[in-house]
Write a structure and sequence with these properties.
The complex is a heterodimer. By secondary structure, chain A is mainly alpha-helical. Chain A contains 10 helices and 2 strands, in the order αααββααααααα. Chain A has a single domain, classed as ABC transporter involved in vitamin B12 uptake, BtuC. The chains are: A mainly alpha, B alpha/beta.
Chain lengths: ~300, ~425
C-alpha cells in the first residue's frame, strides 16, 4: 500500500510539473498553430539563469528574473523570428514549427557549452527536506511543485477565462481570420502566449531539477519532450486536456517505474516508453485527443 | 509561356569552368598525395637512426591521437584527460622525448557522437601511431574493427568486458563486472548483507550497465542472494520511483552503475525516505561535483565507490607527484579520476613505445607486440597491470573509496587494492 501511495504522490508531482510545460505547448498552439519545439531549450535557459543568479539574488530573486527573462526571450523569438517566417503562406504555421527546431538546436548548443559537464544546484529553499504524510515520506520540493503548479495553472486558466487577452486567444484559436476581422490583434495575442509559455517553462525547470533530482544538467531540457504526449493526448487545443494528459503521463511513469519488477513481461525500462504507449492507446480510442475541440486541425 | 534560353558561353564562363576543373584536379591530386603518404608511412623504411618507422613516426616526432569528448556529456572528463596527457607529453619531451623523438598528441573532439568519432578516426588514423585516449563505449565499439585492422594500440576510457579480446585494444584495470563482484564482496565482509538478502542494482541500459549487472548477478548467486535490477537511461535523473520499487523489494544494499547525477539522486532519495542502506557505485558513477548538490550529506554517509584506480588523494608517491604537477600546470582545475586515468594511459603508452624502440621498430604492429609483452607494467599510479592476456582485464584488483568533500578529487581510500575472492572463478567460468 505504501508503494501505491508513493507512486501516486510521485505521479501527481511529476504530472503537475509536466502540466506547466504542456500548458505552454497548448497556449502557443492555440494562439499561433505552431508546435513549439523550443520548449526544451527555454526550460534549460530558465533553469540555467536560476543556477547562475541564485548566489547573488537569492533563490526568489533569481527565479523571478529567470521567469521574466525566459518569457521575454520566448516573446522576442516569436516577434522577431517566427512571425516573419512564412508570410501569407497557408502553411506558415508548419514552417514556423520547423524553425522552432532550429532555434532549439542553437539555444541548447550554447547552453550546453556553458553548462559543460557540471551539475548546477539551483539553491532552492527546500533542499533535501522531507515530510511524513501518513505512511508515505514525500520530498518538500515535491509538495511545493504541486502547490506552485496549481497556483500557476489556476492563474493561467483565469487569464484564459477572464481577461480580454484570453478572449482574443480563444477567438483566435476558433477562427483566426474571423478573429482578425473582428479586430483581434493576432500578433500581440500570440506574442503574449509565447511569453506565458516561456515563463511557465522556466518555473517547471526549477521543480524538474530540484531534489530528488540532483541539479541542472545539459540534458535537462530533454525532459520537456515528455510533456509532448501529455499535450497531444489532451487534444492540443485544450488547456484542461493538457492538465489531464499531464497527470495521466506523470502517473503512468511513476507507476510503471514503481512496479517495474512486476512488469517484467513488458521488458525492463518500460517506464521510458510508457508515456508514448499511453498516448498511442488514447489516440486509438479518441483520435482527436481527450478534450479536442470539434474539427480542430492537428499537426 | 516561359522559355529559358541557354546563355551564350562567354569567355568568362569558359574561364570559370577551366578554373573549376583545375581546382578539382588539384583536390584529386592532393587526395592521392595524402594516400600515398599514408601508404609510404607503413612500408618498412627505416629512419636515420635505424629504427623501423610507421604511421605517425618521423625522424623527429612520435604522433599520438586522442578521440575525446570536449563538448558532449563527458566534457569534464575529456578535458581532464586531455590536459593530463598533454602534461605527460610536456614532461616526456622535457626529459628528452622517446626514442630520440618529441611526442605530440593530436586531439579530436567528437562530442560523444559516434558518427563524428568515426570521421575523426579516419582523419587522424594515417598520421598517428597509437591512441592513448578514446572516450565512450559506443565510440570504441564502432571503431573496434578499424582499430584492429590498423593495429592501432588503443586505450579506451571504457571498461565493458565486451571490449576484451582485441589485440590492439587495452582495457586498463578491471572491467565493470569485476568491480561489482568486488562491491558484493565488500558489502558481505562489512556484514551489510548476508545469505538470503536482496540487493538492488540500478544500471544504465547499454554495455556499461549490462556488464556490471552480469557481475552483480554472478556474485549474488554465489553468495545465495538475489538481485533486484532497475534499468534506467542517462536522462533519468530523478530516481524516486526506482527507490520506492527497491524499498518495496526490501533491499539491504544498492549497487549503482550509472552516471554521477543518478548516484546523487539515488542517495538523496534513499536517505530522505529512510531507506538507509549502503550504496556502492561503479567508478563512472561518481564525480567530485556531486558534493555541491543537496545530496552531499547522503553521499558522504551512504556511498562507496569501487574502482581499479586509487583515489586521487591517495598517498602513493606516484599519484602525489602527478597531482602536484597537475595543480601546478593547471591551477584551479579540478583533479578528478580522469586526470589519473588519462595520465596513467599516457605513461603506459610511453612505456610501450620505449620498449618497441628498444626492439628496433616503432611500426604499429611492433608497438602492439611490445605492449602485449608487458606482464607487470607499473606506473606507480595504482596496481601493476598484466597486458599479456588479450581476453582478460589488465588487473583483477579493486580499491574501495568513499566521498569526502575535503579530499582532492572528492574521494578518499577505504580499502587498498585487492582481488575479491570470487573473481578468478568468475573469469574461469567466463572462459
Amino acid at each position: 500500500m505504501t508503494g501505491f501511495l508513493d507512486s501516486l504522490f510521485n505521479g501527481l508531482a511529476l504530472g503537475s510539473v509536466y502540466a506547466l510545460i504542456a500548458l505552454g505547448f497548448v497556449t502557443i498552439f492555440k494562439a499561433s498553430g505552431v508546435l513549439s519545439f523550443t520548449h526544451g531549450s527555454l526550460l534549460l535557459l530558465g533553469g540555467y539563469l536560476v543556477a547562475v543568479l541564485h548566489d547573488d539574488l537569492g533563490f526568489a530573486g533569481a527565479l523571478a528574473v529567470a521567469v521574466l527573462v525566459t518569457a521575454a526571450v520566448a516573446g522576442v523569438l516569436d516577434r522577431l523570428v517566427l512571425q516573419r517566417v512564412g508570410g501569407s503562406d497557408p502553411h506558415a504555421a508548419h514552417i514556423q514549427t520547423i524553425v522552432t527546431i532550429g532555434i532549439d538546436i542553437v539555444l541548447v548548443t550554447d547552453l550546453a557549452r556553458r553548462i559543460g559537464g557540471d551539475l548546477l544546484p539551483l539553491g532552492d529553499p527546500w533542499g533535501d527536506a522531507v515530510t511524513d504524510l501518513g505512511p508515505v515520506t514525500v520530498a518538500d520540493s515535491r509538495v511545493a511543485a504541486i502547490l506552485v503548479s496549481a497556483v500557476a495553472i489556476g492563474g493561467a486558466f483565469a487569464l484564459f477565462r477572464f481577461t480580454p487577452w484570453g478572449l482574443s486567444l480563444r477567438a483566435a484559436a476558433e477562427d483566426r481570420e474571423a478573429a482578425a476581422l473582428m479586430g483581434v490583434r493576432l500578433t500581440r495575442v500570440r506574442t503574449v502566449a509565447w511569453c506565458l509559455a516561456g515563463g511557465l517553462a522556466a518555473l517547471a525547470a526549477v521543480f524538474l531539477v530540484a531534489f530528488p533530482a540532483p541539479g541542472l544538467e545539459r540534458t535537462t531540457g530533454q525532459i520537456a519532450l515528455k510533456a509532448f504526449p501529455a499535450a497531444i493526448l489532451g487534444g492540443m487545443t485544450s488547456p484542461v486536456g493538457a492538465l489531464v494528459g499531464s497527470m495521466l503521463i506523470g502517473l503512468t511513469e511513476a507507476f510503471v517505474a514503481g512496479y517495474q519488477s512486476d512488469l517484467h513481461v513488458l521488458g525492463e525500462g518500460f517506464g521510458d516508453v510508457a508515456p508514448y504507449a499511453v498516448m498511442v492507446l488514447v489516440l486509438l480510442v479518441r483520435p482527436a485527443g481527450l478534450f479536442a475541440a470539434k474539427g480542430a486541425a492537428r499537426v | 509561356m516561359n522559355v529559358t534560353h541557354p546563355r551564350p558561353r562567354t569567355a568568362r564562363t569558359a574561364a570559370r569552368t577551366a578554373a573549376l576543373a583545375a581546382a578539382l584536379a588539384a583536390v584529386l591530386l592532393a587526395g592521392t598525395a595524402c594516400s600515398s603518404k599514408a601508404d609510404g608511412g607503413s612500408t618498412d623504411d627505416a629512419a636515420a637512426d635505424g629504427v623501423k618507422s610507421g604511421p605517425g613516426i618521423s625522424d623527429k616526432t612520435i604522433r599520438l591521437g586522442a578521440l575525446t569528448d570536449l563538448t558532449g556529456p563527458y566534457a569534464t572528463l575529456g578535458k581532464s584527460i586531455v590536459q593530463a596527457q598533454q602534461m605527460w607529453a610536456d614532461e616526456t619531451n622535457a626529459a628528452g622525448g622517446i626514442c630520440g623523438r618529441e611526442v605530440e598528441i593530436v586531439v579530436k573532439d567528437h562530442g560523444y557522437d559516434v558518427q563524428k568519432a568515426v570521421t575523426a578516426y579516419a582523419d587522424i588514423a594515417p598520421d598517428v601511431v597509437a591512441l592513448p585516449q578514446v572516450i565512450g563505449s559506443p565510440v570504441v565499439a564502432a571503431l573496434l574493427d578499424d582499430i584492429e585492422r590498423d593495429h592501432m594500440l588503443t586505450f579506451p576510457q571504457a571498461w565493458a568486458a565486451s571490449l576484451l579480446g582485441r589485440d590492439s585494444v587495452q582495457v586498463l584495470g578491471t572491467t565493470y563486472d569485476l568491480d561489482m563482484i568486488a562491491a558484493v564482496d565488500f558489502l558481505t565482509r562489512a556484514k551489510k548483507i548476508a545469505k538470503g538478502d536482496t540487493i538492488g542494482h540500478v544500471y544504465f541500459e547499454g554495455d556499461y550497465g549490462a556488464n556490471a549487472l552480469e557481475g552483480s548477478e554472478w556474485a549474488a548467486e554465489q553468495a545465495g542472494m538475489k538481485v533486484a535490477g532497475q534499468k534506467i537511461k542517462a536522462t533519468d535523473t530523478d530516481l524516486t520511483a526506482q527507490v520506492s520499487a527497491l524499498s518495496k523489494a526490501g533491499v539491504k544494499a544498492i549497487l549503482i552503475s550509472a552516471g554521477p547525477a543518478q548516484t546523487a539522486s539515488l542517495a538523496g532519495v534513499a536517505a530522505a525516505r529512510g531507506l538507509k542502506v549502503p550504496i556502492v557505485s561503479s567508478a563512472p558513477g561518481y564525480a567530485p561535483q556531486l558534493l555541491k548538490t543537496p545530496a552531499a550529506a547522503a553521499l558522504e554517509a551512504m556511498v562507496h565507490v569501487v574502482s581499479a584506480a586509487p583515489a586521487v588523494s591517495s598517498d602513493l608517491p606516484g599519484v602525489k607527484r602527478m597531482v602536484a604537477s597537475y595543480q601546478k600546470a593547471y591551477p584551479g582545475e579540478p583533479v578528478d579520476s580522469g586526470v589519473l586515468s588519462g595520465y596513467n594511459a599516457a605513461q603506459l603508452t610511453g612505456a610501450d613505445l620505449k620498449k618497441a624502440c628498444e626492439g628496433g621498430s616503432l611500426a604499429r604492429q611492433d608497438v602492439v607486440k611490445a605492449h602485449r609483452s608487458q606482464k607487470n607494467a607499473d606506473t606507480g599510479l595504482g596496481t601493476p597491470q598484466d597486458f599479456t592476456l588479450v581476453t582478460a582485464p589488465a588487473s583483477r584488483s579493486t580499491y574501495v573509496l568513499k566521498p569526502d568533500a575535503k579530499a582532492v578529487g572528492g574521494l578518499v581510500g577505504v580499502e587498498e587494492a585487492h582481488k575479491a575472492p570470487g573473481v578468478d572463478a568468475y573469469m574461469a567460468g567466463r572462459g
